[in-house]
Design a protein that fits this description.
The complex is a heterodimer of chains A (313) and B (299). By secondary structure, chain A is an all-alpha fold. In chain A, 77% of the residues lie in helices and 1% in strands. A two-stranded antiparallel sheet of chain A has the order 1-2. Chain B has 10 helices and 2 strands; from the N terminus they run H-H-E-E-H-H-H-H-H-H-H-H. Classes of the chains: A mainly alpha (313), B mainly alpha (299). Chains A and B meet through helix 1, helix 7, helix 8, helix 9 and helix 11 of A and helix 1, helix 4, helix 5, helix 8 and helix 10 of B.
Chain lengths: 313, 299
Amino acid sequence: MFGYILRRLLSTVPVMLIVAVFVFLMLRIGPGDPAAIIAGDNANADQVAMIRQQLGLDKPLLIQLFVWLRDILGGDFGESFFFRKKVADLIADRIEPTLALAICTTIIAVIVALPLGVIAAMKRGSVIDRLVMGFSVLGFSVPVFVIGYGLIYLFAIELPWLPVQGYQRIANGFQPFLRSIALPSLTLSIVYIALIARMTRTSVLEVLDEDYIRTAYSRGLTPLQTLMRHALPNAAVPIVTVIGLGVALLIGGVVVTESVFAIPGIGRLTVDAALARDYPTIQAVILLFSFVYVMINLVIDISYLLLDPRIRY
Amino acid sequence: MSGGAGATTRRRGPTLLREAAIVIPALVLALLVLIAIAAPWLGTIDPTLLDPTLRNKPPGYVGAIVRPDGASGPFTFHMGTDSLGRDIYSRVIYGTRVSLTIGAFVAFLSTALGLTIGMVAGYVRWSDGLIMRGMDGLMAIPPILLAIAVVSLSHAGVAAVVIAIAIPETPRVVRLVRAIVLTIREEPYVEAAVAAATPTPLLLFRHVLPNCVAPLIVQATFVCASAILVESILSFLGVGIPPEVPSWGNIMSAGRQYFRLFPHNILYPGLFIAITVLCVNILGDAMRDRLDPKLRKRV
């Protein structure tokens, strides 16, 4: 088992290396002079030349790659020419709101989606099932920001219960924090709920056809007991998998949601960096988010060992 | 894994309902295509026409407009105007063109790319490892981030946005095609063709490609739906299509600042996007059930 965990851990290295090489090459093989792109539209020729020399852009590509990788492994993502700050510091400043948003969204999504999917599966073909499936397709089809503005209109303007925009740090008190994060998390959770509910339904449906479920019923177990003891544990692996894959959706959604709700997190930083063509920041953000995505899916892969004793590597 | 899913398909409601799941969204999409083509004749005015005196008017407002040719007259702004005094109805109707075009182009581009790369990976053994590791790397980058990064590299334009959205969509198509090729290449008729010294390109075209068509059509609809959404998101964030182009995302992006006072800026284009993407998704789901039950596990 530890051999498997180790192998799985090592297998993330090539993937991250490919992401890094891709992020590195993007700027170099894209149209235009990278030094000029990094310097921005207002830079003069001297500044561009200085940046070229500073970043070693005059050296061979392979050497540049190695220097860049070495810096990144040492936690040095370079300096943002737009924000005039170290990229690593820039990201550290903004990690709290993004983390809070992602965690709250995941909690809401799992709490809402699991029961929805299970009920839909147990009442297959019923009105509830159709409603859940309809909601799920709808959730995939409405842009996150439209949902966001819809919720703002309902719960912050028509019913002035929650703040329209902005973020309160946890250090400023837990209640203001919760009030500020409630609408963004709810907004972002919709698509995640759609995804998880759909997979839960499919997965539970499959398990419900199994012989051991019938046996459980015939032993006199109530539907709830059967569900908790036999159906859910066996349906867990695909559900957990989709929660992991959904993190990619979640990250994309964070970028949009932070913009709608004016939350000063990494998502908002990504958009600001893209608008300013602030390359060192964009590169760092992509690497960071991809790393998080890969790591979460690694943890989920390993969790299969706990969820399903049949899986042995 | 697809055993239960197959059972679901069999037990699914009456035929009429299944037909409806294809016919209704197909009709709505056909209507949207018609709207896109006939945009100039649907009582629209120039979607880029500005009028500072007509800023932020509510839906149904009647105002006088001066057309570029000098003719003036009363005009009803069915969906109101935006903060620059442009007619939202005209922008939404013309926006149908932009969104559908981008959806179609991205679906075509990533399907074509994915088909080519996937066939090579599945058939040319030595290339498989290399290609698939590259695809794994691409798939590890969240799609919207990748699109934002690609768009910010070049100066914004429709072509750049299409490419930026197509790149993250392609690896999923590659995986699908490769999986199909790997099963097909073991079939007796492929072995027979190999034994008959059929050249590889011809073999891929004649025996492998036809097996990919049905799943690819299904995949292309999902890519199309996702492309329309991602375009609206990129434009909304201000990193998509140039703001003067009336795309649904751009209309909402322009209306963002004054959302509290004038929600109609977001409401109407949002409704159009939701209906369009919903129809494409329902159509895709229904076609998948019909063409290829094995594909039900979409993520």
